[in-house]
């Protein structure tokens, strides 16, 4: 599975392993994206509960073009909305390769859930 860096992997895995609930795939995909950016994660981590992400309360101090795009794609996946189109994501002038890889991985997680993450959990 693709991670932006080791810190991204560590934070995502800690969050998934520390959550006792079996979360919907959309939650896992959004969490994966929110943990990819340090500033975005700082703003988001207190608005995430066991199975709920309150996007209305996530307010990074400063958005960059990239972390704003990550935020909107995470929100779109979680809520089933379309603020950013697939055509936008595929535009290499709008979305750098590294972000594109994050989005493709998030789509895989949304489709396959825990299986794709490689994180094995047992739920009661």
Give a structural overview.
This protein has 124 residues and is mainly α. The protein has one domain. Helix content is 56%, strand content 0%. The chain contains 7 helices and no strands. It has helices at residues 6-18, 25-34, 38-44, 65-79, 86-90, 97-112, 114-117. Helix 2 runs antiparallel to helix 6 (97-112). The chain is globular and about 45 Å long. The two termini are 26 Å apart.
How are the elements arranged and paired?
Blueprint: H1 6-18, H2 25-34, H3 38-44, H4 65-79, H5 86-90, H6 97-112, H7 114-117
The shape, in one word, is globular
Q: Indicate how many domains the architecture comprises.
A: 1
Say what oligomer this is.
Answer: single chain
Output the structural class: mainly alpha
Low-confidence blocks of residues? none
Note the main attributes of this structure.
single chain; 124 residues; mainly alpha; 7 helices
